[in-house]
Amino acid sequence: MNTYREQVNNLQEKLVDKIKNDDRTGVKISGYRIAGSWAKHTILRATGLNPIDIDLVLFVTGDESLREDIGRLHDFVVSYLEEIYPTKDIAKDVDAEGKTKAITIKFVGTGLHVDIVPVVPLEKPADYVWQPERGGGGRYHTSVTGQLAAAKTWRDKNSYYTSIVRAAKFWRNYQELDLLSSFTIELMVAHLEAHEGVSSNIEHGLLRFFRLISDSSFPVITFPRAINSVPASYTNPVFIADPTNNENNAASKLTKAGWDEVKSKALEAYETLHIARTMSDLDSTADEWKQVFGPKFNVEV
Fold first, then answer.
1. How crowded is residue 83: how many other Cβ atoms within 10 Å of its Cβ?
2. Segment 193-222, tens digit of pLDDT
3. Burial class (CB in 10 A: 0-12, 13-18, 19+), 65
4. Is the Cβ–Cβ distance between 261 and 237 less than 8 Å?
C-alpha cells in the first residue's frame, strides 16, 4: 500500500505544481483530496482484472471560461501529464476519451489506476462542487467532503459495514456485474443499516443486501441530510440517491437489462447463502460461499 501512496502523492504534488506555475490558463487548484473507495476504507486488494483504483479530486478555481469548458480543462490536464511523465505512452496509459468526469492514468508496474477528477467549488451550498457527468452528458452538484463524512458515519456506527461492502464488491467482481458501481453498493448497505438496524455480523449484512436487490419491489433510496429531492421522473430502473444530493442518481449507469442481471445473481446468492447455513461442517459451508464469491474468497476481503 505504501507504494500506491507514494505514486499518488508524487502525481498529486507534480500536477498541482504544474497547474500553479502555468500562466497559459488562469486555472488554479484551491485544494485536492483523495476520495473514492480508498478514502472510504472499502477498497479491495488488487487482482489482475481489478486493479487498485484511487480518485484524486482537484478543486479548480480561476479562469471562468475554462472552468465552464470541461473538455478544454481535460486537455490541459492530459498535457500536464505528458510533461510530468515524458517516458509514458500517454495515449495508451491515460484515458480521457469522451471527456468523462475523470481522467485515468495507469501505472503499469504496480497496476495502480488514478482517476483525476476536476471539480469546481460552488459559492452555495457550502462544500458543494459541480462535477462533469460520466460520458460528458452535463454536470451535477455534489459534495466530496459530504460523501466522505457520510461514509465515516456509517463505518463508525457499525464495525461490520466496511467488511460487508467489501464482500459485496468482491461478489460484484466475481459475477462480472460491471454496471453495479462501488458507490451504489455502499449506499444500499447504508440504507439497510439506517432502515433495518445495524447488522449483527457480515453474513447478516450480506443476506439483507442480496434480499434487498432480489425483492420484486426495490425502494427509491434517499438520504435525509441531502439537499433537493428525487426527480419526478427518471429513466433508470432504480434510483439510489447521492447521500449529499437526492437529485443525483448513483445508479445512473444501470440499464434495465443490467439491473435484471444483478437481481438474478443476487437471488442466486441469497438462496445459496441460506443453503450454506444448513450445512453441518465448515468445509461444506465454505464451498457454498465460494459458489457465490469465487474460489479465492475469504471473510477478510
1. 12
2. 999 999 999 999 999 999 999 999 999 999
3. exposed
4. no
Secondary structure E strands in the chain = 27-35, 53-62, 94-95, 103-107, 112-121, 129-132, 139-142, 241-242, 245-249
**Peptide bond before 125: cis, by omega within 30 degrees of 0?**
yes
Render 157-214 in DSSP notation, one character per residue: H-TTHHHHHHHHHHHHHHTT-TTS-HHHHHHHHHHHHHHH---SSHHHHHHHHHHHHH
Model pLDDT, residue 225: 93
Alpha carbon distance, N-terminus to C-terminus of the chain: 15
pLDDT beyond 70 at 293: yes
Segment 7-59, tens digit of pLDDT: 888 888 888 888 777 777 777 778 888 898 989 999 888 776 677 888 888 88
Report which secondary-structure segment, H or E, holds 264.
Answer: helix 256-277
Site of grid cell 496509459: 93
Cell representation of residue 87: 517516458
Place of cell 450480506: 206
Grid coordinates belonging to 32:
485536492
Sign of CA dihedral 290, 293, 297, 299: negative
